[in-house]
Structure formats: structure tokens, C-alpha cells
Amino acid sequence: MPTYEFLCKKCKKIFEVSCSITEYERKKKKGIECAKCGSSEVLQQVSGFQVQTSKKS
Ligand SMILES: [Zn+2]
Fold it and tell me: Ligand 1 centroid to 54 CA: how many Å?
């Protein structure tokens, strides 16, 4: 299961969301909330996370 790292802009805490890709897409639509303060002002951290590149057509 992939782990997604987020930085909360409000409390400056980094938290991880571990879920399947479909679950993650669902969460993104609803809005990811900070695990610490519940703020939805979060930034996804890309360092240490391998982004799968889609094929260019
Ligand atoms: Zn927060």
C-alpha cells in the first residue's frame, strides 16, 4: 500500500496517509485533512515518494 506524505500549512506538521490509490483519489476529491489539526490546507510532499510517470503518446 503506498504512503503519501503531506505537509500541513497550518501547523507545519508532516503526516502520512497510507491508503490504496483508489482510496487516495477519493480522499483527494473530498480534501485531505491534516491528521493533527484537521486543516485541509495541506501540501503533498514528493520527496521520497516515487511518482509513476505515465507513458507519453
Ligand atoms: Zn495541521
Answer: 31
Please report, for the domain that includes residue 38, its CATH number. 2.20.28
Three-state DSSP at 36 gives: coil
CA of 17 to the centre of ligand 1 (A): 13
Per-residue model confidence (pLDDT) at position 51: 57
Instruction: Report whether 44 contacts 27 (CB < 8 A).
Output: no
Residue 52 lies in a domain: no
Which range of residues forms the domain containing residue 40? 3-45
Q: What is the mean pLDDT of residues 13-25?
A: 92
Ligand 1 centroid to residue 7 C-alpha, Å: 8
